[in-house]
Amino acid sequence: MSSTENPPASVPLGDLTAAHASVTLLERLADKLGGRASVTAVYGEPITRDGITVIPVARVGFGFGGGAGREIGTTKTGEGGGGGGGAEARPLGFIEIKDGTAVYKPIRDPLTDVVLPPMVLLAGVVGSKSVRTLIRIKNRRSL
Questions:
Q1: What pLDDT score does 17 carry?
Q2: Cβ atoms 52, 100 nearer than 8 A
Q3: Count of CB atoms within 10 A of residue 19's CB?
Q4: Which of 35, 39, 30, 42 is nearest to 89 (CA)?
Q5: Mean pLDDT by 10 residues, the chain (143 residues)
Q6: DSSP code for 79
Q7: Helix, strand, or coil here: 2?
């Protein structure tokens, strides 16, 4: 909502329909979460010490969802509602500024650096042996 638009009028909670309550909840969630997902959340405050400036870098995301309800039939009444949201921030690395030069330094995941290379190597060995075995079997059948 832009600053030139008027905010929605307050509705007493007892007068809210399920659909209107869901929309109101979603608007509130969007306002709260949207205000926190900003450049300052991605690039933290710079820290300077001994001539080196470090700027933390993170991946920030947010999402939200909601629901609604309705009245069903002439004898049945129904209500509904729902909503939820969340935000996540993960550190990715930092920018180091020293002597007028900026360098991005990623924060590496030890699991990726230690476990992934042997797994890829193992998959390559097993895959190549499997292909060779299948070729031998096919060649024997064609004789």
A1: 61
A2: no
A3: 16
A4: 42
A5: 47 54 73 67 86 90 73 72 75 92 89 80 86 83 71
A6: -
A7: coil
- Taking the CA atoms of the chain, what radius of gyration do you get in angstroms? 28
Residue position matching structure tokens 């935000």: 87
Tokens of 76: 């049945």
Calpha distance 78→128 (Å, rounded) = 60
Residue 100 identity (one-letter amino acid)? G
Q: Report the distance separating Cα 85 and Cα 83, nearest Å.
A: 7
Residue type, 110: P
Amino acid found at 86: G
pTM exceeding the 0.70 threshold for the entire prediction: no
CA distances from 129 to 1, 118, 138 (A): 61, 17, 14
